[in-house]
Each structure stands twice: as C-alpha cells, then as structure tokens.
Amino acid sequence: MKNAYKLIAVDMDGTLLQSDKTVHEDTVRDIQAAVDGGIPVVYCTGRAVVELEPYFAVLPMMRYAVCYSGALVYDSAERKAIYRAEIAREYIEKIVRTAAEYKAMPHILTENDSIVSSSDIQHMDQFRMGGYQPLFLKVATQVESMEEEAKRYDSVPKINIYFRSEEDRSRAYEKLKALPLTFAFAEKTSLEMTAEHVTKETGLAQLAKRLGVTLGETVGIGDADNDRAVLGSVGFPVAMGNANDEIKAICKYITADNDHNGVGAAIQYLMGEEK
C-alpha cells in the first residue's frame, strides 16, 4: 500500500453504501483484499450499532466500528463496546423539546437501540429522510411519546433531529448551540449531536490507539461535512466523487462516487492496483 498506511476508516452513507443502502459486490471484494493484505478496514459512521447489524453479515471482515459519530467504538467480533462518551440526561430532554417546537423528528440512539416516534416514522419523507425509512421500519423501536422516552435515560451516545427544512435546522441549532455538545449538519436537514468534543475523529483516534496505529498512518474515506474532522486529521484523506466541493478541497485523492465502487477504487489506488 502506498506510504504503508495501516488502517482504512470508511464512512457509510454516501460512501460505503450505494444510494439504495446496499454494498456493491466489488466493494466487498476490494475491502477483503485490503484486509487480506494486513490493512484493517473499519466503519466510521453516525449510525447506531443496531443499524449496522445487517452489514456485519455482508462485511464480516470489518470487525470494528466507530459509530454514533465517534461516541462509541464497537467490536463486532466480541459483540461489545470498547469505548464510549455520552450525552447527559439534562441535555437529552432539552433536545427532544426543541425538536417538538419545530415539529421535527427526534431520534435517540442508545448502545442497543434506535428509538423514534411511531408517528414520525410513517412520514420520513417530510423530514427529507425517506431513503432511510425501510431501515428504520426494520430496526428502530417505535414509541408514542419521545418526550416521555427522553426521561428514561441517564445518558445516551447520540441524538439526531430531522427537520422539515434547512431553515428550521438552522433556527433550532441557534437555540441549542450553547449546550456543551458537539453538533454536525448531515443529510439534507439533519442535526446530529454527541457529547462535547466527541467527533468521528476522536472515536477513530481511540480505535487507532487500541490497534497501535496513528491517525497519520490512517486513510479516511468520506463524503459529507460530518466526515470533515476525520478527513482533516488522517494521513491520507479520500473524498468520494459525490462529496461536496469543500470536502474534496481538503482531500488528497478523489475517487468514484458511492454508486460506482468509490471505496473499492480508492483501495485499489492505495494498493497500487489501479487500472
């Protein structure tokens, strides 16, 4: 591999996954080739563990996951978390109340569950999240009242709010930004929240240290603003062809898009096998 990089961290939505949320068969092959060559490939995603479960079977060679945007690192072989940093209870309730003010869709992610309103899940297209509805219907726990649900937890790894418009997201962020949390804009109208100073980068740094690798020896592949911290800290940042121009500008290599094996093409390039 070029420059002897020792770890590859891959975002999921818009990167590892195609637009239909499946993994291209050539991507599976190329990831296996990297792992067979002694280079671990790990998830680096905003998703919850329960949302990763369908992919563990498709990509069994990917043992580790930096998930919940860095709030938890998961070992799929041992079926346990090996690092966590969570949002305190007092902030959980305020976030959910703020979502209600904008008639938005709050999404609470615990270590073992993905929790949404039974009403909201039926109308995810209104929150610009229609592409995720099949996954949510399959894995999410549906509750009647998110405000009551918020009172059940002392802490959680992550909370998302899906808004009806970018303007609502911006206004809600202005109300919440003073809280000691880390915020990221994602998807079209999503606001992602983790504990203070927690990002995909901090979670990846925890995993890299555990594996005896530095971030300078790591490749990061991503497409969106919530990948910025990782791409700005790794030794070899790669932008997907479908990434925005700001993300492409901070990367050393631009690969194909997520519907044309962009992750696999980047791995081939790094392993010196690009055709």
Description of the structure:
With 275 residues, the protein is α/β, with parallel strands linked by helices. It has 2 domains: 2-84 and 199-270, 3-Layer(aba) Sandwich (Rossmann fold), CATH 3.40.50; 87-195, Hypothetical Protein, Haloacid Dehalogenase-like Hydrolase, Chain: A, domain 2 (2-Layer Sandwich), CATH 3.30.1240. Helices cover 32% and strands 24% of the residues. The strands form 3 sheets. An 8-stranded mixed beta sheet has the order 5-4-3-2-1-14-15-16. The longest helix has 13 residues, at 89-101. The model has no long low-confidence stretch (mean pLDDT 95).
CATH topology type of the largest domain: Rossmann fold
The first-level CATH class name of the largest domain = Alpha Beta
The termini sit apart by 15 Å
Output the structural class.
alpha/beta
Considering the chains and any ligands shown, give keywords for the structure.
single chain, 275 residues, alpha/beta, Hypothetical Protein, Haloacid Dehalogenase-like Hydrolase, Chain: A, domain 2, 2 domains, six-stranded mixed sheet
Short description:
This protein has 275 residues and is α/β, with parallel strands linked by helices. Helices cover 32% and strands 24% of the residues. The chain has helices at residues 25-36, 49-58, 89-101, 133-139, 146-150, 166-176, 200-210, 228-231, 245-249, 262-270; strands at residues 7-10, 41-44, 64-67, 72-75, 80-84, 87-88, 105-109, 114-117, 141-143, 155-156, 158-162, 181-186, 190-195, 218-222, 236-239, 253-254.
